Amino acid sequence: MSAPSFAEHDGLIWYNGEMTDWREANVHVLTHGLHYASSVFEGDRAYGGKIFKLTEHSQRLKDSAAILGFEIPYSVEEIDEACRETLRINNIIDGYVRPVAWRGSEMMGISAQKNKINLAIAAWQWPSYFSPEARAKGISLKTSKWRRPSTESAPVHAKAAGLYMICTLSKHAAEQEGFEDALMLDYRGHVAEATGANIFMTFGDGKLHTPTPDCFLNGITRQTVIDLARERSIEVIERTIMPEELAKAEQVFLTGTAAEVTPVGRIDDNTYSVGDLVNTMMEAYEAYVGKTPPAKVSAA
Q1: Which of 36, 69, 96, 253 is the most exposed place for a label (fewest CB within 10 A)?
Q2: 142 given a catalytic annotation
Q3: 283: part of which helix (H) or strand (E)?
Q4: Could you tell me the domains of the chain?
Q5: Model pTM?
């Protein structure tokens, strides 16, 4: 039996300062954000009733809107409190929080200078982004034909809805070939990220290597994992990684709010072990966010 539509959940959504019945939290079909992608969003994770790095996420939401040329009419502190209230009123202990801001329907056309800026926040229960079986052996990635754009082509440092169009295309194509996700290169042909997560890898030197986020998001989870690694005297090297290096990598994992720390077992025809370093970072992250019980991943 298929899961219920996200339009059919029970609960309340914070919508422009008011709690609104889940099924009534709607927008008009001529909303500018729907037609022209003038929308930004965040993905927050709650553990034990507390939203992880909430203020950092709320600040990034404000910053993303500013990059797209509009101002969310709420402060970071107000967004923080609205997220907490949404979590509380829906009785979510471990779950996902989705703030989204967009230009409304007052003007229809490329120009939308007078459109109202809307903000909504939803929260729901959220299990593992990838199945426990996939995580145990490491998920599989297929290199996408789509590439992350350059800083001259798109607002690459905003968490903007329009930038995820090629992520959906990439993930769908990968899934149709039996992979769990897609690996995306950047406009120069360098390794960039997965469709919704950053990537790390090892090359047998005990160090973590990760692409420099100069044309894609420097994820909050990515930054957290880098800090956790360095606290454990694991050197982290941010650098250009070429696709041909994937054949030499030994361990690979993804990081993201939804993905958390997820091992990768395969990229195209290259296979990787779920080894000690991956498990170390998984356990470190789970302990840091207060996730219980800590899940030990085994390749068996």
Answers
A1: 69
A2: no
A3: helix 276-289
A4: 6-125 (3.30.470.10), 132-289 (3.20.10.10)
A5: 0.92
CA distance 130 to 262: 8
The H or E element spanning position 148 is strand 139-148
- Per-residue pLDDT for 297 more than 60? no
Backbone torsion region of residue 81, taken as left when φ is above 0, otherwise alpha when ψ lies between -120 and 50, otherwise beta: alpha
Answer for the pair 250, 193: CB distance below 8 angstroms, yes or no: no
* Residues in contact with 202: Cβ distance below 8 Å, sequence separation at least 6, in sequence order: 208, 209, 249, 250, 251, 252, 275, 277
C-alpha–C-alpha distance, residues 164 and 171, integer Å: 10
Q: How far apart are CA 21 and CA 105, in angstroms?
A: 21
* pLDDT tens by residue, 88-122: 999 999 999 999 999 999 999 999 999 999 999 99
Name the one residue in this structure whose structure tokens are 């009785």: 91
Q: For residue 288, what are the contacts with CB-CB under 8 A and spacing of at least 6?
A: 224, 228
Tens digits of residue pLDDT in 14-70: 999 999 999 999 999 999 999 999 999 999 999 999 999 999 999 999 999 999 999
Catalytic residue among 53, 62, 142, 159: 159
